[in-house]
């Protein structure tokens, strides 16, 4: 059974940093695409980042380019999202997604990120 468990969210001041983690179980990450989505109250779901392929090519939403970095540890079966220079508009629930899918059946339960002074 595939299971994704996100962690690492919290309250941070603007300009601060957080590192989100996603623990994957039920399959080996290896080179399977995996990524992050986010959803803020009253807003549409936004694809944040996706890591794909044997070269771990990374893709980012324009809104986070240069500030966020996605990575994975195949040995630990973990995916990470390093978020720097956080802005209030980054506040949302962040979800880890198998295959970078928009189907919420492939998501974890999410972790809340709040950027506020």
How would you describe the overall organization of this protein?
- This protein has 117 residues and is an all-beta fold.
- It is built from no helices and ten strands.
- It has strands spanning 3-7, 10-12, 18-25, 34-39, 46-52, 57-60, 68-73, 78-83, 92-98, 111-115.
- Strands 2-10-9-4-5-6 form a six-stranded mixed sheet, with no helix packed on it.
- A hairpin with a 6-residue loop joins strand 4 (34-39) and strand 5 (46-52).
- The protein is globular.
- The termini are far apart.
- The model has no long low-confidence stretch (mean pLDDT 94).
Low-confidence stretches: none
Number of helices: 0
Look at the structure and give the mean pLDDT. 94
- Structural class call reads mainly beta
Secondary-structure element sequence? Answer: EEEEEEEEEE
Task: Give the proportion of residues in helices.
Answer: under 10%
Approximately what portion of the residues adopt beta-strand conformation? Answer: over 45%
Q: Order of strands across the widest beta sheet?
A: 2-10-9-4-5-6
Summarize the biggest pleated sheet. Answer: 6 strands, mixed
Distance between the termini: 40 Å
Number of strands: 10
Instruction: Identify the overall geometry.
Output: globular
Radius of gyration: 13 Å
